[in-house]
C-alpha cells in the first residue's frame, strides 16, 4: 500500500490525528452545546434578517418607489447586491469543483463550508431580482410557460432570461453536489447519535447511506463528473451575469472584457468571504488542525492573483475607453475616476487592486489577523466595484438634462443588511448542525497528508507500516457453530 | 436452511486491502465491504465492474441539449415569432447565438440532476431509507467485510481473515 506524498509537502492535517480523531473533531460542534458567543452573533444576525424582512415587506406593499431609484438611475443598489452575492458564491464551486479537477487536496478541509457559503449567498442573490419585480408573486412569469391570453412565451434573446436559467441551474446543481458529499458525513453523525430524535433526523438527512464499496465507487465517479460539469457552469454563470450589462449599449457596460473580468472578480470576492468565515470558524469550532495556516496562505495567494487579474481588467477598460475614440465611452471612465463618484472608484481601486498586493509578503499572508482584515477590505471593495460599474454608467447618460445622482434610502440599506443577516443566520445554523468538514474525504488523505503518518514515513522509510497491529479476538470454531440453531 | 455470512471487522484500510487480496487469490468472492471513506483500489481488488454513471451523464446531457433546442425553436421560431429590437426570429440557426447560453445551461442541468438521481436510485439512497451497514462503527473508523459461507468452507475462510488481521469475526444468519 503506497500512501506516498513528497516529504517536502507540508502536512494538510496537523496533530497526531487518527481516523477516529477526525470523527470526534468533526462531530464536536454538532454534539456539543452552543456557547454564549454563538447565541450573541446569531441574535444579531436574526435581528438584521428580521429588519431586512420588514424592509422587503414595506417595498412590496408600497412599491419600488421607496427605493432611491429615479428615472435616470433605474438599476442601482439592488442589482449591486445581486451581483455581489452571486460573485461571493463562486468561490465555493471553485474550491469544490475546479480544485478537485486539479487534484488540489487542500480543498478537502474547506470545500464543505465554501459550498455552504455558495448556496446561502446564491439564495441572497436570488432575492433581489424577485423583489425588484415589484410584484414578486408573478415571479413565475420568468418560466417558459405561455401567458393566460395565448401562447406568448418568454424572450429567449434576453440576457435577463439567460440569468434565470443560469442562476437556477447553478443553485440546484451546487445543492445536489453539496448534499451528495454530505451523505457519508450525515451517516457518521447518525451512527454516533445517542438520542433517538437526532438519530432519526440524521437518518433522514443521510438518505440511508451505508458505505458499500460499490456506493463509494459511484460516489467518487459522481463527484468527479459533477466537478467536471460545475466547472464550466460556474464560469458560465458569472459570464451570463456580466451579459446583463455587456449586451446593452450603455457606455462603461458595453465591453467584451466583461465575462472574464466578472469571473475573476467573483472568485476574488468569494475567496475573501471564505477566508472571513473560516478564520472565525476554525477558532470557534477548534478546527485549527484541519484548516491550517497553510490553507489560509493558499487562499491568500488566490486572492492576490485574482485581485491582480481584476486590476489588469480595470486598466484594460481605461485603455480601451481611450483607444476606442468614442467620446461617450471616454467620458464614462473619466467620470468614474474624477466625477462625483470618484470616492467609490478609488475605494474600489484601493481595496481590490492595492490591498491584495500585501499578500506577496509571506509574513503577511501567514498572519491570521491580517488575512482577516484584508478579506473584509476585499469584500467591501468588490461591493464598490459593482456599485461603480452600475451607478456611474447610468447617472450621467446621453442626455445631460437627465443627469442626476443616486442615493439609497433606508429601505435599500435595510434590505442589504437583511440579506447579510439572513446569510449569517443560515451559516450559523449550518455550523452547529452540519458536519463542517468533509470528514470522509479528509480520512481518505490522512495517511498521505496527515502529520502523524508523514512522521512515521520520515522515521521508518516509505514502506513503513502505517497502522498499529490489530488486537485480534481468538478464532472460534465456526464449523461447529454453523449448524447450531440460532446465532444472530 | 438459511444461508450464513461471515462478518469480519478490520481496523485499518491497509489491513483490509491485504485481506481482500488474500481472499481473492484463493478465489473466494467477497459479498460486500462497508467503509467509512473511499479506499483507493478497493473496487478493483474486490473485482467490482466499472460504474457507468459517467456515460449516463453524457447521454442525459445530450437529452438536455435536445430539449433546450426543441423548446426554444418551438417557442421563439414556430409558435410565436417576435421581432425584438430589430432582430426578427427567422430561423433557429440564424438566431442561435442568442440561444447558446440556455442550450448550455440545460445540458448541464439535465446531465447533473439525472445522473445524481440515477446514482441515488442505483445505490438505493433516498430520504427515509433505512441504513444497511451492519455495524455503526463502519461510518467512523472500522471496515466490515461480508462473505457468504457454507458448512464446508466457513472455517477455511475464517482462517484467511484471521491470518490477515481481522480483529473480530462473526457468523451471522443472512436475512
UniProtKB/TrEMBL annotation, chain A:
GO terms for cellular component: plasma membrane. Keywords: Cell membrane, Membrane, Transmembrane, Transmembrane helix. Residues 464-488 are annotated as: Disordered. Its main location: membrane. Belongs to the NrfD family. It is a multi-pass membrane protein. InterPro entries: NrfD-like. It comes from the Bacteria. This is Quinol:cytochrome c oxidoreductase quinone-binding subunit 1. It is found in: Cell membrane. The chain crosses the membrane at residues 38-60, 82-102, 114-134, 160-182, 222-241, 261-280, 301-323, 343-361, 368-390, 410-431. The keyword Cell membrane applies.
UniProtKB/TrEMBL annotation, chain B:
The chain crosses the membrane at residues 53-76, 96-120. Keywords: Membrane, Transmembrane, Transmembrane helix. Coiled coil: none annotated. Pfam families: ActD (PF11821). InterPro entries: ActD. This is Quinol:cytochrome c oxidoreductase membrane protein. It comes from Psychroflexus sediminis. The lineage of its organism: Bacteria, Pseudomonadati, Bacteroidota, Flavobacteriia, Flavobacteriales.
